[in-house]
Amino acid sequence: MSFVVAVCGATGAVGREMLKTLEQRRFPVKKLVVLASAKSAGKKLIFDGREVIVQELGPSSFEGVDVALFSAGGNVSKEFAPIAAKAGAVVIDNSSAWRMDPDVPLVVPEVNMAAAAHRPKGIIANPNCSTIQMVVALKPHDAARIKHIIVSTYQATSGKGQAAVEDLLAQTRAVLAGAPVVPTIFPGQIAFNVLTDWKAGDGDYSEEEMKMVHETQKIFGDKSIGVSPTTVRVPVLVGHSESVHVQFHRPMHAAEAKKLLEHAPGVTLMADAYAPGKHPQPIHAAGQDPVYVGRIRDDLAVSGALNLWVVGDNLRKGAALNAVQIAEALFAH
Question: Is 254 exposed, middle or buried (0-12, 13-18, 19+ CB in 10 A)?
Answer without folding.
Answer: middle
